[in-house]
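SEQUENCE-TO-STRUCTURE ENTRY
===========================
What this section holds: a protein sequence and its matching fold, both as plain text.
Question of interest: how does this chain fold, as expressed in C-alpha coordinates?
***
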Amino acid sequence: MASIIRKPFSYSFKNATLAIILINTAIFLIQQVIPSLSYILSLNVYNCIGGKMYWQPFTYMFVHGNFQHLFFNMLGLFFFGLSIEKALGTKEFLLMYLLIGTLCGLFSLAVYFFTGQWRIILLGASGAVYAVLLAYAVVFPKSRIFIWGLIPVPAPVLVVAYAIIEFFSHFLGMRSGVAHSVHLAGFGFCWLYFLVRMGINPIKVWKNAYF
Protein backbone atom coordinates (compact mmCIF):
# COMPACT_ATOMS: atom_id res chain seq x y z
CA MET A 1 0.00 0.00 0.00
CA ALA A 2 2.79 2.39 0.95
CA SER A 3 4.57 1.67 -2.33
CA ILE A 4 1.45 2.71 -4.25
CA ILE A 5 0.94 5.89 -2.24
CA ARG A 6 4.58 6.90 -2.61
CA LYS A 7 5.05 5.86 -6.22
CA PRO A 8 6.78 8.87 -7.85
CA PHE A 9 5.63 10.54 -11.04
CA SER A 10 7.97 10.86 -14.00
CA TYR A 11 9.46 14.33 -13.83
CA SER A 12 8.19 17.05 -16.14
CA PHE A 13 7.79 20.79 -15.88
CA LYS A 14 4.80 22.33 -17.67
CA ASN A 15 4.40 25.67 -15.86
CA ALA A 16 1.15 24.67 -14.17
CA THR A 17 1.65 27.44 -11.61
CA LEU A 18 1.15 30.11 -14.25
CA ALA A 19 -1.81 28.17 -15.65
CA ILE A 20 -3.47 28.17 -12.21
CA ILE A 21 -2.83 31.91 -11.86
CA LEU A 22 -4.38 32.53 -15.28
CA ILE A 23 -7.42 30.37 -14.46
CA ASN A 24 -7.98 32.23 -11.18
CA THR A 25 -7.62 35.57 -12.94
CA ALA A 26 -9.97 34.55 -15.75
CA ILE A 27 -12.62 33.38 -13.29
CA PHE A 28 -12.29 36.64 -11.35
CA LEU A 29 -12.87 38.64 -14.54
CA ILE A 30 -15.88 36.49 -15.44
CA GLN A 31 -17.24 37.10 -11.93
CA GLN A 32 -17.34 40.81 -12.69
CA VAL A 33 -19.62 40.11 -15.66
CA ILE A 34 -21.56 37.21 -14.14
CA PRO A 35 -21.74 37.81 -10.34
CA SER A 36 -23.82 34.65 -9.84
CA LEU A 37 -20.69 32.62 -10.65
CA SER A 38 -19.45 33.30 -7.12
CA TYR A 39 -22.66 31.81 -5.73
CA ILE A 40 -22.20 28.68 -7.84
CA LEU A 41 -18.47 28.10 -7.25
CA SER A 42 -17.81 29.31 -3.70
CA LEU A 43 -18.36 26.97 -0.75
CA ASN A 44 -21.49 27.23 1.39
CA VAL A 45 -23.22 24.51 3.41
CA TYR A 46 -26.70 25.36 2.16
CA ASN A 47 -25.65 25.34 -1.47
CA CYS A 48 -23.24 22.41 -1.35
CA ILE A 49 -25.42 20.00 0.64
CA GLY A 50 -28.93 21.38 0.33
CA GLY A 51 -28.51 22.60 -3.24
CA LYS A 52 -26.46 19.53 -4.24
CA MET A 53 -23.60 21.67 -5.54
CA TYR A 54 -21.12 18.97 -4.61
CA TRP A 55 -18.32 20.51 -6.67
CA GLN A 56 -17.90 23.45 -4.29
CA PRO A 57 -15.18 21.93 -2.01
CA PHE A 58 -13.04 21.93 -5.16
CA THR A 59 -14.14 25.05 -7.03
CA TYR A 60 -14.08 27.46 -4.07
CA MET A 61 -10.30 27.78 -4.38
CA PHE A 62 -10.62 29.38 -7.83
CA VAL A 63 -13.00 32.16 -6.72
CA HIS A 64 -11.95 35.39 -4.99
CA GLY A 65 -13.87 38.16 -3.27
CA ASN A 66 -11.99 41.17 -4.62
CA PHE A 67 -8.87 42.15 -6.52
CA GLN A 68 -6.72 42.42 -3.38
CA HIS A 69 -7.75 38.91 -2.33
CA LEU A 70 -6.84 37.56 -5.76
CA PHE A 71 -3.61 39.55 -6.08
CA PHE A 72 -1.96 38.47 -2.82
CA ASN A 73 -2.95 34.82 -3.20
CA MET A 74 -1.61 34.70 -6.74
CA LEU A 75 1.52 36.64 -5.76
CA GLY A 76 2.30 34.05 -3.09
CA LEU A 77 1.57 31.24 -5.53
CA PHE A 78 3.87 32.79 -8.13
CA PHE A 79 6.85 33.26 -5.80
CA PHE A 80 6.64 29.95 -3.97
CA GLY A 81 4.62 27.70 -6.29
CA LEU A 82 6.91 28.11 -9.27
CA SER A 83 9.94 26.99 -7.24
CA ILE A 84 8.06 24.02 -5.79
CA GLU A 85 6.78 22.96 -9.20
CA LYS A 86 10.30 23.07 -10.64
CA ALA A 87 11.64 21.05 -7.71
CA LEU A 88 8.91 18.39 -7.52
CA GLY A 89 7.67 18.34 -11.10
CA THR A 90 4.33 19.49 -12.47
CA LYS A 91 2.38 16.29 -11.74
CA GLU A 92 3.45 16.14 -8.10
CA PHE A 93 2.83 19.84 -7.66
CA LEU A 94 -0.67 19.65 -9.16
CA LEU A 95 -1.56 16.64 -7.02
CA MET A 96 -0.36 18.42 -3.89
CA TYR A 97 -2.01 21.76 -4.69
CA LEU A 98 -5.40 20.43 -5.84
CA LEU A 99 -5.64 17.64 -3.26
CA ILE A 100 -4.78 19.87 -0.31
CA GLY A 101 -7.04 22.64 -1.59
CA THR A 102 -9.92 20.16 -1.83
CA LEU A 103 -9.18 18.68 1.60
CA CYS A 104 -9.25 22.20 3.05
CA GLY A 105 -12.65 22.67 1.42
CA LEU A 106 -14.01 19.40 2.81
CA PHE A 107 -12.57 20.20 6.24
CA SER A 108 -14.22 23.63 6.22
CA LEU A 109 -17.52 22.16 5.02
CA ALA A 110 -17.50 19.70 7.92
CA VAL A 111 -16.59 22.41 10.46
CA TYR A 112 -19.29 24.77 9.21
CA PHE A 113 -21.87 21.97 9.10
CA PHE A 114 -21.28 20.61 12.59
CA THR A 115 -20.91 24.05 14.22
CA GLY A 116 -24.06 25.41 12.59
CA GLN A 117 -22.23 28.06 10.55
CA TRP A 118 -24.29 27.31 7.48
CA ARG A 119 -24.36 30.86 6.16
CA ILE A 120 -20.59 31.27 5.89
CA ILE A 121 -19.26 31.52 2.35
CA LEU A 122 -15.72 30.26 1.75
CA LEU A 123 -13.77 31.32 -1.30
CA GLY A 124 -10.16 31.82 -2.31
CA ALA A 125 -6.95 29.83 -2.77
CA SER A 126 -5.49 30.70 0.63
CA GLY A 127 -5.54 27.16 2.04
CA ALA A 128 -3.68 25.76 -0.98
CA VAL A 129 -1.27 28.71 -1.04
CA TYR A 130 -0.41 28.26 2.64
CA ALA A 131 0.29 24.62 1.82
CA VAL A 132 2.67 25.75 -0.92
CA LEU A 133 4.42 28.05 1.57
CA LEU A 134 5.03 25.14 3.95
CA ALA A 135 6.18 22.97 1.03
CA TYR A 136 8.67 25.68 0.08
CA ALA A 137 10.07 25.71 3.62
CA VAL A 138 10.51 21.91 3.50
CA VAL A 139 12.03 21.71 0.03
CA PHE A 140 14.21 24.79 0.52
CA PRO A 141 14.78 24.87 4.31
CA LYS A 142 17.79 27.19 4.13
CA SER A 143 16.08 29.69 1.85
CA ARG A 144 15.60 33.17 3.27
CA ILE A 145 12.51 35.22 2.54
CA PHE A 146 12.81 38.99 2.75
CA ILE A 147 9.96 40.60 4.69
CA TRP A 148 9.10 43.98 3.17
CA GLY A 149 12.14 43.40 0.98
CA LEU A 150 14.45 44.20 3.92
CA ILE A 151 14.39 41.61 6.71
CA PRO A 152 15.74 38.13 5.82
CA VAL A 153 13.81 35.37 7.57
CA PRO A 154 14.54 31.63 7.14
CA ALA A 155 11.60 29.96 5.41
CA PRO A 156 10.87 27.49 8.27
CA VAL A 157 10.80 30.36 10.80
CA LEU A 158 8.35 32.26 8.62
CA VAL A 159 6.09 29.20 8.39
CA VAL A 160 6.12 28.70 12.16
CA ALA A 161 5.43 32.40 12.70
CA TYR A 162 2.49 32.31 10.30
CA ALA A 163 1.13 29.18 11.97
CA ILE A 164 1.29 30.83 15.41
CA ILE A 165 -0.39 33.98 14.11
CA GLU A 166 -3.15 31.98 12.43
CA PHE A 167 -3.64 29.83 15.54
CA PHE A 168 -4.13 32.76 17.87
CA SER A 169 -6.15 34.73 15.32
CA HIS A 170 -8.56 31.80 15.05
CA PHE A 171 -8.81 30.62 18.65
CA LEU A 172 -8.80 34.08 20.24
CA GLY A 173 -11.79 34.96 18.11
CA MET A 174 -10.25 37.68 15.98
CA ARG A 175 -12.92 38.18 13.34
CA SER A 176 -11.69 39.89 10.20
CA GLY A 177 -13.42 37.91 7.48
CA VAL A 178 -10.25 35.83 7.08
CA ALA A 179 -10.64 32.05 7.20
CA HIS A 180 -7.80 31.37 9.66
CA SER A 181 -8.91 27.74 10.13
CA VAL A 182 -8.44 27.14 6.38
CA HIS A 183 -4.90 28.51 6.55
CA LEU A 184 -4.12 26.19 9.45
CA ALA A 185 -5.73 23.31 7.54
CA GLY A 186 -3.48 24.11 4.57
CA PHE A 187 -0.41 23.79 6.80
CA GLY A 188 -1.74 20.63 8.45
CA PHE A 189 -2.69 18.80 5.26
CA CYS A 190 0.61 19.74 3.60
CA TRP A 191 2.46 18.36 6.63
CA LEU A 192 0.53 15.10 6.26
CA TYR A 193 1.19 15.11 2.52
CA PHE A 194 4.94 15.14 3.09
CA LEU A 195 4.71 12.44 5.75
CA VAL A 196 2.34 10.10 3.90
CA ARG A 197 2.99 10.72 0.21
CA MET A 198 6.71 11.56 0.28
CA GLY A 199 7.93 9.93 3.48
CA ILE A 200 9.49 13.20 4.62
CA ASN A 201 9.21 14.61 8.14
CA PRO A 202 9.47 18.43 7.96
CA ILE A 203 10.81 18.60 11.52
CA LYS A 204 13.72 16.30 10.64
CA VAL A 205 14.44 18.34 7.50
CA TRP A 206 14.63 21.55 9.51
CA LYS A 207 16.73 19.96 12.28
CA ASN A 208 19.22 18.65 9.72
CA ALA A 209 19.36 22.05 8.04
CA TYR A 210 20.01 24.09 11.18
CA PHE A 211 21.34 21.80 13.92
About this structure: DSSP finds eleven helices and two strands in the chain. The longest helix spans residues 90-114. Residues 145 and 166 are 19 Å apart (CA to CA).
